[in-house]
Amino acid sequence: MVGDVFTFKAVSEDTNGQYTLVELRVDPEIGPPPHIHHREDEAFYIQEGELEFQLGDQTVIATPGTFLYSPKGHLHTFKNITNQRARMLIWYIPAGIEQFFVEVGTPVNDPDAPSAPATPEAIKRILAAAPKYGIEFIA
User: Fold this and answer.
1) Cβ distance 76 to 55 under 8 Å?
2) Phi, psi for 15 (deg, rounded to 5)
3) Which of 10, 33, 105, 126 is the most buried (most CB within 10 A)?
4) Residue 50: C-alpha distances to residues 74, 81, 83, 84 (Å)
């Protein structure tokens, strides 16, 4: 999805709707624009690489072993600030957001392959679907 590769580890059906767990691979210089999840809390555990997080008015450089939490309603974003792919686990509580990723993303056969760049069509799909899932992008 626009430069990130999501691998679903646990979805709503696996957790009785309690949480979704994804592994996210983030290519260099990639990250979402600032946004707010109005339905889910979000937690991040960095496995590889280095990511710069903006959580509200706080900036954090996250390296392997870093755990970060962003409650619902909290403005946040992140970006891979290195020239190597980063990898992290993300929990969304409660589950259900995986349907957003399925709706707007593009399936890949090999999660280790370079991600597809963002296209105007992909961005348009994301912006159109986001309100349905309680996601607000901040310009």
Assistant:
1) yes
2) -120, 15
3) 126
4) 22, 6, 10, 9
